Each structure stands twice: as structure tokens, then as C-alpha cells.
Amino acid sequence: MLKKHWTSLHKIFKQLFYYEFMSRKSIGINAERELIHLFWSAGWSAVRVAGSGSSQYPSCDILASNISRKIAIEAKVTKDKGKYLSKEEVEQFQLFSSKFGAEAWIGVKFKNLTWFFVTLEDLKLVGKNYLISVELAKNKGLLFNQLINRF
Questions:
Q1: How far apart are CA 5 and CA 25, in angstroms?
Q2: Is 41 marked active-site?
Q3: How far apart are CA 11 and CA 81, in angstroms?
Q4: Could you tell me the residue ranges of all domains in the chain?
Q5: What string of DSSP letters covers 66-85?
Q6: 48 three-state secondary structure
Q7: 86: left (phi over 0), alpha (psi -120 to 50) or beta
Q8: CB–CB of 117/105 below 8 Å?
Q9: Domain at 2-148: CATH architecture
Q10: CA–CA distance from 79 to each of 22, 27, 112, 144, 150 (Å)?
Q11: Distance between CA atoms of 138 and 118, rounded to whole angstroms?
Q12: CB-side neighbour CA atoms (13 Å) of 32
């Protein structure tokens, strides 16, 4: 009888984890699609790099370009007041952007705020990770229109 209850509980926890994971994944995908629409609406070309982060090779979430600029974006969404990125994640993103010949930007969207775009140089190292806080994003980051009109 105990085994039967354990099996039932295990299935329930597995389903809850699956839906929670899919929900976070869906939030990220929707945020990336939002950025794609913003770029196209502004006259840029943009694509979402599906499966980014799941390959053995460095990549990014979004590539955007106009006639004179190429931008690689690592997109992050959070309901918290800060978003942490691992050192390795940032280094891999920088490697990809460099090899691709694109400007590297971290796009972050905090709950109830607009998108902010931060350079890798402006990230704050906290222990073994980088942190983008709301304060850092507001002080050092660019809004979307500032990003696309830069230069």
C-alpha cells in the first residue's frame, strides 16, 4: 500500500515539475518573440536562435541586424529584483558574439518594467556569478530605442 501511495505522489511531483519547467520555458520563449517583433517593427531583421543553450557550441538567444550593425542578445526575464548569470554563460556568449562579429548585449526584462539592454562590461561580478539588478539596468542599461539608435 505504501508503494502505491509513493508511486502516486511521485507522478504528481513529476507533473508539477514538468509544468513549472514548461511554464518558465514558455515565458522565456514569449519574451524572445516579443523582442523579435520589436526589432522587425523598427525596420531591423531579427531571428530567434531556437535551442540556444542546449548545444555544445556557444550561441545566443536572438540575432538582429540592420544594414550597418549586428547584435547578439542573450534574453533574460525575471520576476525578481535581479538576474544572475554564470561566469561560464557570459564567457560563452562573449565568445559566440566575438566569432560572429556581433555586438554582445544582455536583454533583461524585470516584472512590470520594460526591456533594458546591458553590455557585458557593465555586468557586476558577485562571487562566481554576474548580477544584473534593476538598479544597474536603469543606470547603465539602454532602452530598446536607445539600443537600436546607438551610433
A1: 30
A2: no
A3: 33
A4: 2-148
A5: -SS-EEEEEEEEESSSEEEE
A6: strand
A7: beta
A8: yes
A9: 3-Layer(aba) Sandwich (3.40)
A10: 16, 11, 8, 19, 28
A11: 9
A12: 23
Q: Which residue has the higher pLDDT, 11 or 66?
A: 66
For residue 122, the one-letter residue type is D
Instruction: Find the catalytic residue in 8, 26, 52, 97.
Output: 52
Residue 14 and residue 22: Cα distance in Å, rounded?
12
Radius of gyration of the chain (CA): 18
Q: How confident is the model at residue 19 (pLDDT cuts 50, 70, 90)?
A: very low
Q: Are 134 and 81 in contact (CB under 8 A)?
A: yes
Residue 91 · residue 100 · CB < 8 Å: no
- Collapsing DSSP to helix, strand or coil, 30 comes out as helix
Share of the chain above pLDDT 70, in %: 79
Q: Write the single-letter amino acid at 114.
A: T
Using DSSP, state whether 131 is helix, strand or coil.
Answer: strand
73 Cβ contact list (under 8 Å, min separation 6): 35, 60, 61, 62, 63, 64, 105, 106, 107, 117
